[in-house]
Design brief:
Radius of gyration: 26 Å
Oligomer: single chain
Strand content: under 5%
Helix content: 55-70%
Largest sheet: none
Distance between the termini: 79 Å
Length: about 100
């Protein structure tokens, strides 16, 4: 009987400290925001608040989408010009010398 009571007590204590999936996802986003640049951190904090307020149906999917949005927020908005991009050698053009440095 004593082992059963001890086991029941441990189960009851472990249940007290568990967090909801929303809280867990929001905490992970807050920790990611602490390691991000300001633009990404703002996106992550806002989404963490929305998850805590139960605005997201699936907290795991919402957290993944928030990470994607944060990556887009910190990416440079300027696209490389066509001169910066590699282009193939055209027939009739001289071959540039090989760069060996």
């Amino acid at each position: 009987m004593k082992p059963f009571l001890a086991l029941a007590g441990l189960v009851a204590l472990s249940a007290c400290g568990s967090s909801s999936p929303q809280d867990n996802a929001a905490e992970r986003l807050d920790r990611a925001a602490e390691q991000s640049d300001p633009a990404a951190a703002e996106v992550l904090h806002n989404k963490a608040d929305a998850i805590r307020e139960n605005e997201a149906g699936d907290p795991g999917a919402a957290a993944q989408n928030a990470l994607s949005e944060a990556g887009n927020a910190q990416a440079p908005a300027v696209q490389p010009s066509s001169q910066d991009q590699a282009r193939p050698h055209r027939a009739g053009e001289p071959m540039p010398p090989a760069q060996t440095r």
